[in-house]
Amino acid sequence: MADDQNQKVYCGNAKIIKTQYGELTRISLSADDVQKMQDNLDNGWINIVVKERRSPSPSGLTHYLEVDTWKPTGDREGGGASSDRPAPENTNNNVDEISAEDLPF
Q1: Residue 70 CA to chain centroid, in angstroms?
Q2: What is the pairing mode between strands 9-19 and 22-28?
Q3: Buried b (16+ CB within 10 A) or exposed e, 34-71
Q4: Is the distance from CB of 71 to CB of 2 less than 8 angstroms?
Q5: Per-residue model confidence as pLDDT tens digits over 5-53
């Protein structure tokens, strides 16, 4: 099971294009890419990560897409959260409560 989570699934390409309205990201997916995404659907959702290439391809592609295959492991019995990702550290233990007057808007 761990091998399945470590296997990378690539799907599609992207290119940053400049327009009169600013930069846009054009994403291209083939039928095979869509099938790869459907094969990785979890509860009707799929997470895709857009990553920048080290250097543009000969056709000018600047980014590529990868399916995020991470899934939590273990169960949540006993009230503890079990996952492969570390829990965020709470570095602000002495936080006073914030009131509406403290907000800048």
Answers
A1: 10
A2: antiparallel
A3: eebbeebeeeeebebeeeeeeeeeeeebbbbbebeeee
A4: no
A5: 578 889 999 999 999 999 999 999 999 999 988 888 878 888 999 999 9
Say if CB 24 and CB 15 are below 8 A apart.
no
Residue 69 identity: T
| CA distances, 48 to each of 33, 63, 68, 72 (Å) | 12, 12, 6, 17
User: Are the beta carbons of 14 and 28 closer than 8 angstroms?
Assistant: yes
Half-sphere exposure of 90 (CA within 13 A, CB side): 3
Radius of gyration of the chain (CA): 20
CB count within 10 Å of CB 14 equals 19
pTM reported for the whole predicted model:
0.58
